[in-house]
Structure of DUF2058 domain-containing protein:
Amino acid sequence: MVSLQEQLLKAGLIEKNKAKVANQQKSKQQKEERRSGTQSVDEARLAAQEIQRKNAERARELNAQRDAAAQQKAIMAQIAQMVQQNRQSKGNHGEIAYNFTFGTKIERIYVTPAVREHLVAGRLVIVGLNGAYELVPRVIADKIAERDASLVVRVNKSTTEVEEDDPYAAFQIPDDLMW
C-alpha cells in the first residue's frame, strides 16, 4: 500500500524536502501528545460523523413524512370505499333544495321529500368527498367522522334538552323550516 505522500512524490506534485519536513513535524507533534497524555482528535472523522448523523436524522424525517402521507392516502381510500358502498339515492330528479353548510360555504343539493325527511330526522347524513356530496346512513357517517371529521357535512342530532339560561327556550324552531 502506497501512502498519499509517496504518490504525490511520484507524480512530482511535491518536493522531497517538503515531504521530509512535514514528516518531522508530524512525528514531533505525536511525541508531544504522547508525553502530555492527550490524544489528537481527528476533526475530519468527527465532521464525517456529524454529517452522517444529520443525514440519518433527515432520512428519518423524510420517512416519517412519507409514512404519514401513505397513511392519509389509505384513510382517504377507506372513506371513498365506505361512501361508494353505502351511498343512498337522493331520489329521482329531486324537487326540494336542501341547503347545508360545508366549511364556510352554503351548499345545496336537490332531494325528494322522503329523502329530506330522512336528513331532518338524522337517519341520513351528507358527506362531502372530492367536490361531490353523497348521502350515507348515520352509522357510516360516524365511521367516516372517526377518520376525518371535516368530510361529514351535516349530522342532525335531535336535542330536546333546553339549557336553563337559554333566552330563546320558549321559541321552538320547526323541523320543516326552509332557508
